[in-house]
Amino acid sequence: MLNSYELSRQWFDFSFENPEKVKPNHTAIYFFIIEHCNRLGWKERFGLPTTMAMEALGIKSYNTYIKCFNDLVEWKFIKLIEKSKNQYSSNIIAISKFNKALDKALDKALINHSTKHCRITQQSIDSIIKQINQLNNKTIKQINNKTIEFCNFLKVNEQNIFRSSVSLFNVIDHETIITIKEIEKNLKNEFTWRENIIKNYREVNKDFDENVFNSYLEQFIKLISSDGEEYKTIQDTKKHFNRWLKIEIKKKNDTNNNEKNGASNDFRRRTFERVSGTHSNK
């Protein structure tokens, strides 16, 4: 069973030992992956939608995101089970669990400094051990630089992270009756549900992508609104949409087939008339 404390400790051990490699974006992406996995019930393998992660972390550049993501794979903090085809689909990943002893350099540094610089006081039981008085200049610069970089990153992206977190993770119970407007907002953030539908229909129609899905969803919301429905549950709406989408796609396919058959029949008729006319002239 994965443990967020152990994963966090392993990451900062690595970060402490490799300050020249680790950037704030690495930390942000890795801890977002841990949070996402936790919300999915610590699934062994799960999808990580690229656009969702970039939006939640306020990372604007896909190249920046994918470089840090690939670094995490290379450093073996995550396993890439199935690579996404583009930035609009999900990578299937798993979080690596290290079964190594946790006596890393950071632990030893803190223990050594604690032993050297902490002293026992007689006045208060609550203050038996004092804080570390002094750290090696190089060590404290590394920690301070990493802290400043990460704090600056959070400060710059604070609004984006907060706004995305509210929209992505403030999930309403699927059995709760809510307004059609709220349903539309929630369905747009149902990334796993949306990607499963796109994947299923793309198997028979390669042109069925996210834009096509969004177009159908907008038509559906307008339809149920025009029918006078004001409140539904998310679960009922999903079922209703799935049935409606299947019918709409069948209608479109039937129309396309009829048009093709009509064009083919018309071609045969004209060909027959030309041939018949030629024989008559002879």
Query: What is the overall pLDDT average?
Result: 78
What is the β-strand count?
A: 5
Radius of gyration equals: 29 Å
> Shape, please?
elongated
| Largest sheet: spatial strand order | 1-3-2
- Under CATH, the topology of the largest domain is which? Arc Repressor Mutant, subunit A
Unreliable stretches:
166-171
Largest sheet report: 3 strands, antiparallel
Order of helices and strands: HHEHHEEHHHEHHHEH
Give the total of domains: 2
User: What multimeric state do the chains show?
Assistant: single chain
Strand pairing plus helix content: what structural class?
mainly alpha
Report, as a whole number of angstroms, the end-to-end distance.
Answer: 88 Å
> Total number of helical segments?
11
Helix content, binned percent? 55-70%
Can you walk through the features of this model?
By secondary structure, this protein is mainly alpha-helical. The chain has 2 domains: 129 residues, Arc Repressor Mutant, subunit A, CATH 1.10.10; 104 residues, no CATH class. The chain is built from 11 helices and 5 strands. The chain has a 3-stranded antiparallel beta sheet. Strands 4-5 form a two-stranded antiparallel sheet. Helix 1 runs antiparallel to helix 2 and helix 2 packs across helix 4. The longest helix has 48 residues. The radius of gyration is 29 Å and the shape is elongated. The termini are far apart. 12% of the residues are buried. About 2% of the residues have low confidence.
